[in-house]
Amino acid sequence: MKLLLHICCAPCSVKCIEYFRKEKIDITGFWYNPNIHPLTEYTKRLETLIEYAKRIELPLEVIDYYGLRTFVKNVADDVGARCSYCYKSRLNMTAEYARNNQFDAFSTTLTISPYQKHDLIREHGDEIGESYEIKFLYKDFRESFRTGQALARENNLYMQKYCGCIFSEEERYSKSAGGFKKTLK
Asked: What's the total number of domains in the chain?
């Protein structure tokens, strides 16, 4: 099987790639993540993935599109539902690329994270796969999350602190810092 694997970041890809290679699946990595903000974060994640792909000899296709304005425009009316838009946009681009380049299936490393909405990823992946007439290969990798993170650290991969979008960054840092409230006198 020839698989196009959407990769959200290098650390999340470690165990996914290992699994698919053990299964003798011919994988090509695919970068399309217009949800990641700010630009410095987007660039750091992309550079890390490119270096890691070279190191492990993984073919990698990159659609280098920093989509701040498009992303914000599409989620601004309902920030709470942003993940649905985010999954759909990335899986749609992955499926389209897979279909147009003779892949048998597509998948995503998003399924390693215990913080992602797996039911929604699977639902969108199946729907999008059906619309492009290409199989969405769902694999729940959550049990490998901590091991994958440890291997990423051992490999000196850049480890981000939040999912990727500007709103997840806000949630991550406002919680860890106890919020940004200040008392004015």
From this structure: 1
The CATH code of the domain that includes 57 is 3.40.50.620
Structural domain boundaries enclosing 47: 2-176
Arithmetic mean of pLDDT, 109-121: 95
Closest CA to 31 of 51, 7, 13, 50: 7
Give one DSSP letter per residue of 141-156, joined into a string: -GGGHHHHHHHHHHTT
Distance of alpha carbon 33 from alpha carbon 121, whole angstroms: 15
Please indicate, yes or no, if residue 185 is contained in any of the structural domains: no
- The number of residues in the chain equals 185
Residue 118: Cβ within 10 Å count: 15
Does 183 fall in a domain?
Answer: no
The pLDDT score that the predictor gives to residue 165 is 65
Report the C-alpha gap between 141 and 175 in whole angstroms.
26
Mean pLDDT of 54-81: 91
